[in-house]
Amino acid sequence: MIKLVATDIDGTLIRESSSVLPEEIFDLIRELRKRDIYFAAASGRQYMGLKRLFAPVTDQMLFISENGSNVVWKDEELYASVINPNLIKEMQEYAKHFPNMHLTLSTTKAMHSTGSDDLSYRKMMVDGYQNDMVFDDDEDGTKLKVIKMSLYCESGIRPYAKEIEDYWQGRLNTVVAGAPWIDFMKPGTDKGAALQFVQQYFQVKKEETLAFGDNHNDLGMILAAGEGCAVSTARTAVKEAAKYIVGSYEEKGVIKALQELLKKQK
Predict the structure, then answer these.
(1) Among the three residues 161, 185, 209, which one is the final residue of a domain in this structure?
(2) Are 162 and 91 members of one domain?
(3) Which of 38, 96, 108, 184 is 20 to 30 A from 76 in CA distance terms?
(4) pLDDT(159) > 90
(5) For the whole prediction, is pTM greater than 0.85?
(6) Do 174 and 229 reside in the same domain of the chain?
(7) Where in the chain does DSSP place strands (E)?
């Protein structure tokens, strides 16, 4: 019997950077809670942006934000994984080697970013992802309580991914989190570790957990769930790790799977 459902957002439930959820999701979340099933939005997005996205049901769900760096339940922060300030300073210098990229530093309150003169980027971050943003190209990141860092490349991050991953190997957990994004967290931090924390906190077993994902940053979460599902457009590694394949966000695969769960589990 499923007692916990976790789903990635971008590329799994909706298209990348969309600010609109399928209308069915809100009633599904309400019905899940009526049946004592926890629902978690597990995303690389910021908590406040997710809270706006799920505004009608925020008091009935969990938020696993910043790729597992932060867990919130009913406005209470249950977990936060903070990065060493020395690594933040080094990252700010390292990012200067990539003039075609923007660096973001995420705290539990806001996202601090370079790219103050890039209007399309600013619009995407504020209107698309619905983040609370601070744009400052010269900010001292060591003064912030940073839980995740990210590099954004509009043309695509994959040509640079191996070089970046090799540089930070062993010092930061590095994951590609969508076509333009690569994320950096404290070692041991990812969606899978956060999901395991939630399982322990609410005393839910692995086999009682259902998870949906599409990208490499969802792998840990898929493996931490007894019922791991990849959408049909997922990366090959995610499909191989998953127990089931469901339809893409365009086909409302997650929505249909949750509707089927509620039919079976009465």
Answers:
(1) 185
(2) yes
(3) 184
(4) yes
(5) yes
(6) no
(7) 4-7, 38-42, 62-65, 70-73, 76-80, 101-106, 111-113, 133-135, 148-153, 173-176, 181-185, 209-213, 227-231, 244-246
